[in-house]
Each structure stands twice: as C-alpha cells, then as structure tokens.
Amino acid sequence: MLSKSNHSGVALMLAPARFFRYDNQSNASAWDKGGATMPKDVLKKVGIFRELEEGEIERVAALCKEAGFEKGDIIIEEDSPGEALYILESGRARVVKMEGGVERSLAEVKSGEHVGEMSLIDGMTTSARVIAEESTECLVLYKEDFDLLLATDDKLHIKVLRAINRTLAGRLRRTSEDLMVWKLEFNEEF
Predict the structure, then answer these.
(1) Residue 95's domain spans which residues?
(2) Of the N and C termini of the chain, which has fewer Cβ atoms inside 10 Å?
(3) What whole-number distance in Å separates Cα of residue 29 and Cα of residue 38?
C-alpha cells in the first residue's frame, strides 16, 4: 500500500498506483507513451462527458490523473470517503459488497466504464469495493478539482449532472428489474 496526500493534505492509503498529471498546455504527459490514448479521447467515450464540447472536455482532461493498478489491488474501498471518479482506460474491475468478511460480486466494470460517480455528487462514503481483475489503468478525477471546475461554469455543471443523473437512473432501473425478477423467482419457490 502507498500513502498519498490528496489536495487537502489528508493521507490516503491506496493500492500501489502510479499518478501523473496531464499537462494540457504542452499536450504531453505520462499518457504520451508511444501512441497511448490521451485523457480527452478517453473522456469523449464516457457517457457522463459525451455531450461536452471540445473545450469543456479539455478542461476536464486537464484535471485528470492516471492511476495504475495490478490484479487484486483495491481501487475503491467500501465505506471509505468518496473522493474521486475512476474511469477505466484499460483492464477490468469487479464491484463487490463485503458481508461478514465475504465478497458478494455486484458488477463487472470494463474499459471505458466508470465507478465512483456518486462521490462527485454526495461526498458520502463509498457503497462498495472495486477490485482490479487484471492490470488496470484508470483516469482519476478528484471531487475537489471537479467541484472547483463546475463552480466556474454553470453550463458545464448542468450538462455533467444531467448525465450523471441518467447514469444513476439507469442503474436504479436495472436494480429494480433485477429485484422484480428475484421476487418472482422467490415467490415461485414458496
């Protein structure tokens, strides 16, 4: 585990990860590794940023860091402070709930998908653990940076919050459908 200080000076315990800052001015960064995808190209493919204009995407990309995780590393720990959005550039991760020391798998996250978006909205503790299933590279957008950006641009704020709401509503709808199926199966058994 590495200890890393976030912007407010609070020490965080993280799985071994490499963090880099994207430099929008020179268009070069740790992502410029022989043809690696730039953060803005990744962001354009993510639902919550898909409707943003080029300049808006660049402003978000300038705030992103990169984190690398190996198989088995915890990307997000359940019940920890929700501090960032993680967008998988490559690799896979598994979302699990811990129940009495036992992992209950909830979902799989693939390249191009994201986790942690609720922390951008409510600042509450995380609802689940996210574990890298293989070597995984993520773009990381910290809540503190994101809040500062949104505070300066109402149009961007509305676009992103609408997209996050659509994402959360879709997940809630799927959960409701799953519960209905479970309820029907349960009633058939008894």
Answers:
(1) 2-189
(2) C
(3) 9
- φ, ψ of residue 143 to 5 degrees: the values are -55, -45
**Taking the model in full, what pTM does it have?**
0.73
Residue 26 CA to residue 6 CA, distance in Å, equals 24
Domain with residue 74: its CATH number is: 2.60.120.10
pLDDT tens, position by position, for the chain (190 residues)? Answer: 333 334 433 333 333 343 433 333 433 344 444 444 688 889 988 888 888 899 999 999 999 999 999 999 999 999 999 899 999 999 999 999 988 888 899 999 999 999 998 877 887 899 999 999 999 999 999 999 989 988 999 999 899 888 888 888 887 898 888 888 887 887 877 6
> Would you state the structure tokens that stand for residue 4, as one six-digit string?
């890393």
> What is the largest distance, in Å, between two alpha-carbon atoms of the chain?
65
